[in-house]
């Protein structure tokens, strides 16, 4: 979401830095949910007609076009003629323009699938060649997803909308963006010389192809420099930097302007995606929790019903799932996360997310009713100043005098103690209540449960309830924290002076002062790893802390963060995307609450209770040796058992999705490992065949020539080996690779 201030700045037309040539990416960003006035289609068509050298790139929400046709069908027809003539490129076809780094990998795939499917109805000749976004809608695993959908090029620039972050400056004119699985895509990066603006906190110097930017680019050997702004739909200025610019589509730029041969490979880490939101704020927290819960619910429901279809108990309810996915994908819209308060009372983005995800849940609940009973018991003993909680996996001592913190955590199976005093402490800066406070300042009251303890205490006068649960044979220690806020109170870093948009230092960047739950451990000199969509990032951060827009770090926890000293490790799971803390003298911590100034000077407040579900998993070795991806998947999707269809051998490969299409079972596999893995699917009955598919539905193309055995015959089948007999399919997966199988059940 950009200010109308941009419109004023857009009229500052910069002259050419020299006689050398430069190019510019112009176009429009928005849609029926974000911003798209009814006159906008006619406006774009008329402007394209009036400026024959103006070529544009668009990321317009796919749901926009039915409305546009209804309002002004002739305008849409005129607009589509320019599209078919190649003067318009659709650069972001996702259903709801999500940030991508903050949701599951499967959600990203469905964003593209449903978006492209919808757009093809209105632009049947559309080719999706380049991925680009006005917002920082990036994640490290995009190369394998994009190339599997048929994309050839990408951009890592977002020069005029950096409120929520930007990518790391790197390299020159072009790179081969390399994903964790080794997939590559030719990409225009944020150049190494593309500095952040010193005039704003939402721009790089590439936003208007100014003389300083172009001069720096030429001096750095960039022969074909390019700037970019995708204007907000509704802006009325036409060509963004005037009539004396070389406006190009990304497709034309990559195919007819730049020389591909000189591109170097860049293995993009998730920590090169430098993004941040108002993590810990109650509104952002609820959105993240609602989206995560809906993601888990719909994927579980799909898998359960896939089994039922296999067993002949029902037909695949595609229409119901389409509706359920639609509302979930809309809840992943970037505006939901960065401007959650925008909108009329009762119809803000936050309200929309609640309603949309509720709809997803209702549809899933109508399709299947699943319940299971837990029969796990923990032995609870009263000890001096507290309680001891014990089962076959752990012995945990809890100090009830000091806020219920854990003073001992012994992992029995590996005979290792993990906790030091203050483990599971709540602490933060309550700047309206005297400063820093800790849950250790007050005792807790304890209620014994069959499988754990419930503790009630206070922090800075606010009641909290925490439940700790142990399950026999389960390495996960489960926590549910409820903060029973009675009023809004400032938590975190207070604003220094009058807030202005241009201020680089923003209080919500400072996680060290937010309300955290921290886990000081016996592990020393640890290495940090954290998951991302279809990736695991080996962190290179010295610490997670920053205070200024120009020094953003990727301190985001998607599902889990793990610390290890090499011999032992400990993972932290969370029920929502948020930030985590860690540093040389700062323990692993989870962001629980922030209340104060957010983006655009908006006060992000507390308006009711907060509930957060998290877990701790002690283990041997690093995250991979501790089997953390599998443990986390079981934590997110605890009820799924596909064994009535097939058994899966080849740990650590996961089944991330099971659906049906055209009478065939579609199985998505993911290898969350630094090593290549082989998945062996042994089916409960004979099958008629198996095909490897790209994400766009095409058969996986030959190239790289491994061989496939099908019913004793050998043939080439692309880069991934799949051997199939009547009841078994074997698939080789590179590190962090996804593969999609289409199974003919006969």
Description of the molecule:
With 746 residues, this protein is α+β, with helices and mostly antiparallel strands. It has four domains: 254 residues, Alpha-Beta Barrel (7-stranded beta/alpha barrel), CATH 3.20.110; 86 residues; 258 residues, Golgi alpha-mannosidase II, domain 4 (Beta-galactosidase, Chain A, domain 5); 99 residues, Golgi alpha-mannosidase II (Immunoglobulin-like), CATH 2.60.40. The strands form eleven sheets. A nine-stranded antiparallel β-sheet has the order 21-22-23-24-35-30-29-26-27, with helices on one face. The protein has a six-stranded antiparallel β-sheet with strand order 20-19-25-32-31-28. The longest helix is centred in the middle third of the chain and has 29 residues. The chain is globular. 52% of the residues are buried. The N terminus is likely disordered.
Task: Report, as a whole number of angstroms, the end-to-end distance.
Answer: 51 Å
- What proportion of the residues form beta strands (DSSP E)? 25-35%
Class inferred from helices and paired strands: alpha+beta
Tally the structural domains.
4
Helix content: 10-25%
Could you report the average pLDDT, rounded to the nearest whole number? 93
Q: In CATH, what is the homologous superfamily of the largest domain? A: Golgi alpha-mannosidase II, domain 4
The number of distinct β-strands equals 45
CATH-defined architecture of the largest domain: Distorted Sandwich
| Biggest β-sheet strands, sense, barrel | 9 strands, antiparallel
Indicate the radius of gyration in whole angstroms: 26 Å
Spatial order of strands in the largest sheet: 21-22-23-24-35-30-29-26-27
User: In CATH's first tier, which class of the largest domain applies?
Assistant: Mainly Beta
The rough form would be described as globular
Low-confidence stretches: 2-18, 370-375, 702-720
Helix segment tally: 13
* CATH-defined fold name of the largest domain: Beta-galactosidase, Chain A, domain 5
